[in-house]
Sequence to fold (397 residues):
Amino acid sequence: MLGRAICVALALGVATAFTPSRWAPTRGAMTMGAATQPMSKFERLQSRWKGEPRPVDESKAGFSYDAFEAGLGDTSCAFARGDVIQGKVVQYEYQGALVDIGAKSAAFMPLREAALIPDGDVATAVSIDETRDFQIISEEDENGQLLVSIRRLEFQNAWDKVLASQVEDKAFDGEVIGVNRGGAIVNVHGLRAFLPGSHLCGAIPSEEVIGQSFRLKFLEVNQENNKLVVSNRRAVVEDQMRELSRGDVVQGVVKAIKPYGAFVEIAGMSGLLHISQISYDRIEDLSTVVELNSLIKCMIIDHDKVNGRIALSTKTLEPEPGDMLKDPKMVFEKAEETAAKYHERMEAERRAREEAAKDIVMGLGEDLEAPFSASSDLEQILSSEPAAEGEAAPASE
Fold:
């Protein structure tokens, strides 16, 4: 209560009435040392006042003159643009609300500043007598009124959440709130993010997707330019990549044929079936082996979970070398059976390599454990050397 009274008193310009007068009661001017300055209107009225001060009942005010004077040194009632202050909503107005922030007049919060995404009614954003933080977004007008905002604070808080989510790089859900020619507009922590149509899996950016939620990850985050781009494809690919591993047999559709291989779409992901991995036999014309938009089965031989890339193979599914060129339909029908035999063969080869490496290690161990006599070995070496010229070779016993 004391702080509010101090602010109001300073705003009305009557704070000096509560402090002891330091000026001499002269008419027309006040003297400060050798300099003479014109007196204000209030000071001229004060100088003409006569008589003893009348007693004042301080009990109704709730504070004394001494407390008020002491509070003047600790209280600042200056309001600057960008300051965050606490206020209380006191009244709804047309296209806004009045907020008591302790100034000489209530501040005004426009409807557009009531929330990040206003819905046309200020009552849904704030309630009467609600106390919360506001940000000052203007200077005082001629009536001493300020403009305040909730949207500016929520905007900064939303960007803080986005930046924290970007560092964690975790997938999140976002609701589509609009569409345009290039993609969809998604609500991310109250911010408007752009979802390109090429990064939307299993759907087309049309009016039908408005209101739907999609799993998303960030593509680009630029707070300075207020640019936020998200991807549904990246989130889907990374979720599915966790379930895939080398050696899995998957089914996909051939989406593109290049001289070096074919691109196969597998559950929204693009995998490369290199020409060298199609068959054990040499391929002259790739288009004669795989057809565009055809359904094929492949084995995953490698994958890059970070970039969502998959390397595929069909020659590992051939019961006999060259079957992909002779009868690819049979290869696909027996894909799981052939893959199981392939894994068994790879496992047997792995065990054989381990056994061979173990035998080598054991052999080295036996050599190291063999006894060694430096003197006997040296005598044997010397005895086997040829005799010098002119000397007879020692007779063998």
The two ends are 125 Å apart (CA to CA). The mean pLDDT is 77. The first strand starts at residue 29 and ends at 32. Residues 335-369 form the longest helix (35 residues).
